[in-house]
Amino acid sequence: MKRVILCAGQVYYDLEAGRAERKLENDVAIVRVEQLYPFPYDELRAELAKYPNAKSVVWAQEEPKKTRARSTKSATAWKTLSAKAKNCLMPAVRAAHRQPSAI
What we know:
The structure is a single chain. 31% of the residues lie in helices and 20% in strands. With 103 residues, it is α/β, with parallel strands linked by helices. β1, α1 and β2 form a beta-alpha-beta unit. The protein is globular, with a radius of gyration of 14 Å.
């Protein structure tokens, strides 16, 4: 696997469909994170260990950056996840999200 995509909720199905459409089943792993609080760091670390050759880890979400899983409430969890990624010799975790809509 070249990339691991982390997500929560219904966006998983869109990611799965996109991966199949592009025939990336052997290149991209999709991991659903169903519990955001308390964040399951140990379980996630174990899951990511299954993909030692991954060059990138991405948190994907349908919502804009300031909502839901990447909200201010979870900013600490996000920073901790990124720091733990470095400590576990994992690639840096980056985010992919929809741009906020214009008013």
